[in-house]
Write a structure and sequence with these properties.
The complex is a heterodimer of chains A (about 170) and B (about 240).
Chain A lengths: L16 H133 L5 H18 L1
Helix pairs in contact in A: 1-2
Chain B lengths: L6 E4 L2 E4 H21 L9 H18 L4 H4 L3 H17 L5 E3 L2 E4 L6 H30 L9 H37 L3 H41 L4
Antiparallel strand pairs in B: 1-2, 3-4
The chains are: A mainly alpha (about 170), B mainly alpha (about 240).
């Protein structure tokens, strides 16, 4: 009866409580089974995916920040290296200049020293040569004079006399 | 369509065996679809998993359009099961109906008012249960006096009207569809001329019935969520 009056031509003589029970039982059992075997796992995987995406976003953000930081670091390092290189080059230049001056002055001093030594040597040699010549002249003059004069004066007096003469001659020179 | 129903009395309770059978058939089909498509779930979904996820998101959208997800999340499983079960039930009667010795065996289970009214009553009773459980008896009772106390009788009537319309809308749509399909099938079987006449409207009506079946499943779940949110959510 009841709802069966709504069905055309249905024999509306009893309330089919059995259908109500069957509907409820079938639906509730279906819902529980699906919850256990289908919706539960499916919701789980969707939840998991949501979490994965969220964590991926966080990770990406983190690594982006990290790479940004590293980039800054690299940039400053590069700058530092560049200034350092500049400095080194500058230093080397200065050093080079200093040592150039050093070498030049050393060489100059050495040359001067050598020149002085040479001059000294030359003077010595000249002196030596002059005195040798002088001695030779004395001996020769002595010999000549003694030959001319034969004797009268001792050799000693002669020598002195001749030496004086020669000295006078040297001064005149 | 004066087909008898295959009635059986067990322990003094009457069963319409065709309803019982078709309910079980619908449930088995829904379970198989859901069970098979959720085997070997992947984070990157493929094939049927995509479809099931779409259904879930669809029902989630329905719930979210009516209430907060923290209130409505608990009805997600109910909503998905309802929409799949009702849709499959609506589809079952479309391709054919089987009548054995004047007794109608194969039909949509939702073409029976007892079944649809049971589902509707279940939903309304659930809405009262959750209304009391989530908001407490006092606030639940106060809900009957809002917005104006003198509307109290209407509020009471509304509860019964909701139940009736929810169940009978589904039943009426599906039953009407099957009646017309039955008439057209009768015409188509009547002879060559009848077949030629019936085939085009038959196809049109079957297509329309698929549409109706989908729409009615959607409306049923939508209204379920509306009624639940009336009792559960704070606003409205």
């Amino acid at each position: 009866m009841f709802f069966d009056h709504l069905v055309l031509g249905a024999s509306g003589e009893f309330l089919n409580v059995g259908d109500i029970i069957a509907t409820l039982a079938v639906f509730i059992i279906l819902m529980l089974l699906l919850k256990k075997f289908a919706w539960g796992p499916l919701m789980g995987i969707m939840q998991q995916r949501e979490e994965l995406i969220a964590s991926e976003i966080v990770t990406a953000e983190n690594s982006r920040q990290e790479s940004q930081k590293m980039l800054e670091e690299q940039r400053s390092l590069l700058k530092e290296a560049r200034t350092q290189a500049q400095e080194i080059v500058e230093n080397a230049k200065k050093q080079g200049e200093v040592s150039r001056q050093d070498i030049i002055s050393t060489a100059r001093a050495e040359a001067g020293r050598m020149k002085d030594a040479a001059v000294q040597e030359i003077a010595n040699e000249r002196e030596k040569a002059i005195s040798a010549v002088r001695e030779e002249v004395v001996a020769l003059s002595l010999l000549a004079a003694s030959r001319v004069l034969e004797k009268e004066i001792s050799e000693e007096d002669n020598r002195q006399l001749i030496n004086e003469t020669i000295a006078k001659a040297g001064e005149v020179q | 369509m004066g087909h008898e129903a295959p009635m059986l009395k067990v322990f003094g309770i009457w069963f319409n065996l065709s309803n019982v059978m078709m309910l079980i058939v619908a449930a088995v089909i829904v379970f198989l679809i859901a069970f098979i498509s959720t085997r070997n779930l992947k984070l990157k979904p493929t094939g049927m998993q995509n479809f099931m996820e779409w259904v879930m998101d669809f029902v989630k959208g329905l719930i979210k359009s009516n209430m907060d997800w923290k209130d409505g999340g608990r009805f997600h499983v109910l909503g998905i099961t309802l929409i799949m079960f009702i849709f499959v039930s609506n589809m079952l009667g479309l391709p054919f109906s089987i009548i054995v010795y004047g007794e109608l065996w194969w039909k949509s289970p939702t073409a029976d008012p007892t079944v649809t009214m049971t589902l509707a009553a279940m939903v309304i009773i659930l809405s009262h249960y959750y209304g009391i459980k989530l908001k407490g008896l006092g606030e639940y009772g106060a809900g009957y006096l809002k917005p104006m106390p003198f509307l109290f009788p209407l509020k009471i009537i509304e509860e019964f009207a909701n139940t009736l319309t929810l169940g009978l809308r589904l039943y009426g749509n599906i039953y009407a569809g099957e009646i017309l399909l039955g008439l057209l099938a009768g015409l188509g079987g009547a002879g060559v001329v009848g077949f030629a006449t019936a085939i085009v409207p038959m196809m049109a009506w079957q297509g329309f019935s698929i549409f109706i079946g989908a729409i009615q499943a959607f409306i049923f779940v939508m209204l379920t969520m509306v009624y639940l949110s009336h009792k559960v959510a704070d606003d409205h």
